[in-house]
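Morning F.,

Quick status update on the modeling queue. The single chain you submitted on Monday has been processed. Sequence for confirmation:
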Amino acid sequence: MRIDLHTHSTASDGTDGPAELVRAAAAAGLDVVALTDHDTTAGWGEAVAALPSGLRLVRGMEMSCTGRGEDGAPVAVHLLAYLFDPHDPVFVAELERLRGERVSRIRAMGRRMAEDGLPIDVDAVLASAGPAAGRPHLARALVTAGVVPTVGDAFTDLLSPRGRYYVPKADTPLADAVKMVTAAGGVTVVAHARARARGRILALDHIEELAELGLGGVEADHPDHSEEDARTMKDLALSLGVIVTGSSDYHGGNKDVPLGRFTTAPSAYEALLDRATGVEVVAG
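Structure tokens below.
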């Protein structure tokens, strides 16, 4: 049984539409795939409608959060949320706020670029971005304009947190996010917590605190984790009694990582289902 619990569609910063993504998941030999777009559930309906026979869909999301870094200062972190009630009023309000933060940030970054003479039309970028605008949409615009050769190159400088065009956004405190998702019947998993290439990383003792608040698990096997860091996350999960997941973090053409690059054990998947009370997995 092959299970990939972290993928993105054009509802956020992937390049496959939700329908195209689930068809690709089936073609890649997956039995279970989770759709986890950033701060939105907008792709759920299309993915369900196009679900191929034999494939199971876990409806999820990747939430933009702020946690405590290893240096004690705030750090951006992502929280995977699975099988929550998408109509929970408190959670819906927070997701609307997060998407508004995304739009404001991209507009500010685009303006800075345009002021420096870069050929960026931020209104066009936002119009093409869908409900969850993000830096990858600016990156693709920079590639199209010939400013950089690849999306990855855009993130090494222009869109980097250390770059001159970077604008922060007000994300959800990680502890609050865990509580909100749990209250909405969902299960939470900290995403790629040791992804050092992305910059500063989350403190492990912060994850320990989250476990006391109802955190469901941690993502260990991930393209941005070394074997040593994956082992660290597995050992931490064992000590805390939480679920361990593995996934591709698939973004289509935006990243050179195939569906199913890393997978989740069936026993961990079943444990995740046992904790969820929001919505059910959909079977094709």
